Request: fold
Amino acid sequence: MAVIQNSKIRSRESILLRGIKELPSNFVYFGSQLVLYCWVGFTIFSFIWIIVASFKTNRELFSQVWQLPSSLQFGNYIKAWSVVHMGTYFLNSVVIVSMAVLLILTIAAPAAYILSRFKFRGNEAITNLFIAGMGIPYQVLLVPLFMLFKQFSLLDNRLGLVLAYTGLSLPFSIFLLTGFFRTLPTELEEAAAIDGCSEFGIFRKVMLPLASPGLVSAAIFNFISLWNEYLLALVMITTDGKRTLSLGLYALQGAMQYTSDWVGLFAGVVIILLPTLLIYIIMSERVLEGITFGAVK
Amino acid sequence: MVEGEEPLPPPHNNREVNVRKGRNKLIIPFLLPAAIIYLVIFVYPTIQALFVTLNDWSGFTPNMSYVGLRNFQELLKDPKYWISVRNTLGILFLGGIGIFGFSFLFTGTLTSGFRGKRIFRAIIFFPYLVAPIALATLWSFIYNPRFGLLNGVLRAVGLENLTQQWMAPDRLYPALLVAIVWISTGFYTVILLAGTDKIPQEFFDAAKVEGASRFQMFWRITIPMIWDVLTICLVFWGIEALKMFEFIYAFGSGDQPKIQIWTVGVYMYILSFGKRATIFRMGYGTAVAATILIFVILFVLLTRRIMRREVIEY
Reply:
């Protein structure tokens, strides 16, 4: 009897002890969950808040922080789109970024295919030269690039910006695509060769379709990062009509100190935000995959 | 050997070479376009930059005047440069502590049976995808003393006396750091999470049987198992932090940012292209930029040194 009681006490003790031992751990766990919820809540709220504010009047914005707009001021958007030329900037961005992404994929995919699947002397050196570019801050080559483009009249030229974007995006694109091509199986390639498919045909009809998830990731990643880019655009584009959206929004922000038109600025923010948000909502898994692919093998 | 004599031979070396004779013809046409664009737009300017740093050059005239290492000597005595260096290193280390602290916290929390992991991960990551200029506007909205989110919340919960001019010159730098941590944490969380997901579940099950706490599992299993991913993250962050320009340049709205938040990347731009500079100093600016590269190289070497250890295979 005494023995049973003892063991009961001991087990109760051990549960208690274990509870005490785990208390700090559980405390940390719930604390960290709380931080996580606050963080996510803040993130959602701040974006929703700026979207809501873009539909207010300036007066409503200044006087009632927490009130919803009494009526939706689509006028803010119309004004941003046409009066402040956001429409032109938007179109410029779409054209410049799409052309750059297309050009990047067109030249990076074949190069990555060669570098990842062909054996020849100097292969590793060339691959490393491409990838080393990921560690070079743009600022280093900004002045020489500026002078180079000046010589060829590519400054203040949208095509020039496309070229610059293409060249500077190559390191990451090659890095991502060589990584991707390396993971593809060789069997299909060999089977196609035995069936008499030409080498170019093998690349176009077998390898490219197999690599399409990687190509999509590279396209999305480049699209988003070039859509947001503005250091190069700032250096290279001077004419108002050639500005990209980032550049236009920067100019709008600069003009704020004279106009105090906050709601107009927020409309501009929403305009630049929307494409990214849409891409992300539709294919966030793809985006996240592309981001993690290079780092986590 | 005649083609097709034996039915389906094993794909062996000789055979493969025979069938795919034309293979190597692809190398040059496939590689050349990327190589040319890369060499002209990336490699050549980078090499030329080394030469530009040794010159004094306004950029208006084609002539540079050779000054040797004088740009670098000037830099050592330039107080604005050292303010920029201090701010940049502050972002790298203080911002880095914040970013990796939160990333660990979120990785640890999201991987211990947390419901809604994917959606939380997606939301935490989102700010990283938004245009820096838009984020700068968002944050000047958050910090706005009159109608900003921060003061609005403080007023709403009755902490009126804590409301601040968050963007006042002496608070500008900490305000910037907070914003940077918020933007970048998601990126590193996503990568660390992806690394953690690769760890076989048996390790955690075994640890649980042994009575390990969540905290112990995170420090004793997760961190050692994602060591290589963590190293890559640190290198990424080092490069990103040391060259940071866009968000900072737009932060605080209006014209050029105040000197309290200048980084080396911002200072380089202001020297070389700054719209309000009376004279562009492209040689000196490029010398400043070259020091960013030196910092990057030092940081990468140091990180790899510190993080070096035997690889755990699993």
Confidence is low (pLDDT under 50) at residues 1-17 of chain B. Chain B touches chain A through 107 residues (CB under 8 Å).
